Amino acid sequence: MQQDRRNKPEAPLHVALIMDGNGRWARERSLPRVEGHRVGVSRIRSVLELMDAHNVKHVTIYAFSTENWNRPQHEVSGIMAVLREVIDDETRALHKIGVRILHLGSTHRLDPDLKEAINHAQDLTRDNTRMTLSVAFDYGGRSEIVQAVRGLIRDNVPAEAVDEDLLARYLYTPGIPDPDLIIRTGGELRLSNFLLWQSAYSEFYTTPVPWPEFGPQEIEEALRSYHKRKRRFGAVDPGD
Question: How many CA atoms lie within 13 A of 159 on its CB side?
Answer without folding.
Answer: 0
